[in-house]
Inverse folding.
């Protein structure tokens, strides 16, 4: 029990700040001040979020003093600041980020919407985004559309409701209308597209080397002596699928090989569809001697199915895929791929968005192509 050092009163005592780490009290009975050694602060109740007012009451100082101390104001004595920080820690004080954002008009948070977080490519992109954002003092909120346009729209709405400073987005397979993006773009929200982009919108875009990558993969297969190269293409409506399909056709034309519609099969990146494609090709009078998949995951699935059927890779059918991950290198034989550098894609996208946030109306959007690399492995080496 605390008592006045002058009159020994225990009832009419009030906190009156602190001096050199000791709590200062005012005895109203004798109007004298005294100090006692600081004692641990009683923690807040379980479901109570500690506020600046709680810290102020615990120390007997004004809330404005606590606020200035927490914001490292030079107006506050260093001893006072250290004591406020000590009590704030004991009370598990956490800043109200929303309130702070409303005061300064920014949350230091960026939103990200991706189609599928389980795909190694998008996992790599997220790693790059997170690294750049953290170094720049931004938090990252991630949403997954699961290849659904309606889910993507809800994701964007949720992120905007959370007052994100900007948005990074790669669209779902189903997304063909971009009104949900236009709405926020017209409000001046910084938005950057990556991978699956909307060219009709005036945003900065970080895009993959789709056409060239497909051309190089098919060119490599042709140089290995392949004459009938099937393509496991993606959805017809997906822009990146169209670009990779055009790269495939361009390589055939460049090397004088005829285009055969029977060797083209469009799928939605699902395993059963890749197997359906293989069944169709193997039923042809003249089956393919090579398969190019616009998504490396489908290429791996096709290799597994080919081995089940006793078809030798690459002697009977060579295989190559767009994109890369650890499984592509570990499977036997290892898969020839076009490596996309997803980490770099994420880093460039995050840096571009942060520049957009900082520059505001002075920001000039541009298309940035991330150059990929042909990686030749045993799945395609006929020669």
């Amino acid at each position: 029990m605390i008592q006045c050092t002058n009159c020994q009163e225990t009832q009419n005592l009030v906190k009156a700040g602190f001096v050199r780490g000791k709590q200062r009290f005012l005895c109203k009975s004798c109007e004298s001040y005294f100090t006692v050694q600081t004692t641990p602060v009683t923690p807040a109740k379980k479901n109570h979020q500690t506020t600046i007012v709680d810290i102020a009451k615990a120390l007997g100082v004004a809330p404005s003093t606590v606020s200035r101390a927490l914001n490292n104001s030079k107006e506050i004595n260093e001893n006072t600041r250290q004591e406020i920080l000590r009590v704030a820690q004991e009370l598990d004080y956490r800043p109200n980020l929303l309130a702070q954002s409303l005061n300064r008009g920014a949350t230091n948070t960026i939103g990200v919407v991706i189609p599928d977080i389980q795909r190694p490519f998008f996992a790599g992109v997220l790693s790059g985004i997170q690294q750049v954002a953290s170094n720049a003092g931004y938090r990252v909120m991630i949403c997954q559309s699961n290849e659904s346009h309606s889910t993507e729209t809800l994701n964007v709405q949720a992120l905007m409701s959370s007052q994100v400073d900007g948005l990074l987005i790669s669209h779902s397979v189903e997304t063909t209308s971009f009104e949900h993006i236009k709405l926020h773009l017209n409000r001046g929200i910084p938005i950057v597209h990556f991978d699956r982009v909307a060219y009709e919108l005036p945003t900065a875009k970080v895009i993959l080397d789709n056409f060239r990558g497909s051309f190089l993969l098919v060119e490599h297969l042709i140089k290995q002596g392949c004459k009938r190269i099937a393509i496991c293409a993606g959805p017809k409506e997906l822009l990146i699928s169209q670009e990779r399909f055009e790269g495939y056709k361009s390589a055939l034309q460049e090397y004088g090989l005829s285009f055969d519609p029977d060797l083209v099969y469009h799928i939605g990146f699902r395993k059963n569809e890749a197997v359906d494609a293989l069944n169709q090709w193997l039923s042809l009078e003249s089956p393919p001697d090579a398969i190019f998949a616009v998504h490396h995951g489908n290429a791996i699935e096709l290799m597994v199915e080919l081995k089940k059927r006793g078809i030798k890779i690459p002697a009977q059918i060579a295989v190559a895929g767009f994109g890369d991950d650890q499984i592509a290198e570990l499977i036997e034989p290892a898969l020839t791929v076009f490596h996309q550098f997803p980490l770099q894609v994420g880093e460039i996208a995050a840096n571009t968005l942060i520049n957009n946030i900082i520059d505001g109306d002075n920001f000039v959007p541009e298309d940035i192509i991330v150059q990929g690399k042909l990686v030749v492995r045993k799945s395609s080496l006929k020669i």
